[in-house]
Amino acid sequence: MTLSISRTDVECTAFRELISALDAYLRGCYGPEQDNYADFNTLEADSAVIVAFDGDIAVGCGAFRQHDADRVEIKRMFVAPSHRERGVAGMVLAALEEWAGERGFVRAVLETGPLQTQAIALYGRMGYVEIDNFGPYSEMPSSVCFAKAL
Predict the structure, then answer these.
(1) What fold characterizes domain 3-149?
(2) For the chain, domain boundaries
(3) pTM, 2 dp
(4) Do the beta carbons of residue 4 and residue 113 sit within 8 Å?
């Protein structure tokens, strides 16, 4: 496995394909409840996107968008099932944090679901701490939110 990380944007075809797989995965986990999150999963054109490749095959992704003046929100983290438990998610998250820091952000926040136990474990290993649900997730019982100083 030869992994590489690419900085890109929301128009990237590989990113869009991975996001389609992510959406299908989340629908399989949460069923129709996932519809409640559709409006929160959009990314603006200026969002930062990372895609991980194994050779020329896109195997993972993540993004961030500005949350406020000092914080980014990590979004759309996904690793293809064939490449899970190989460090791909950690590489993507570290690359997102580095990029956010380069842009002057000092904190990252994110939201995930309680069934995403591997993601929750990853965030803990990467130094994220659980926080009260923020913003649009504050009234969502199927949300678990985290934060980290960059």
Answers:
(1) Aminopeptidase (3.40.630)
(2) 3-149
(3) 0.94
(4) no
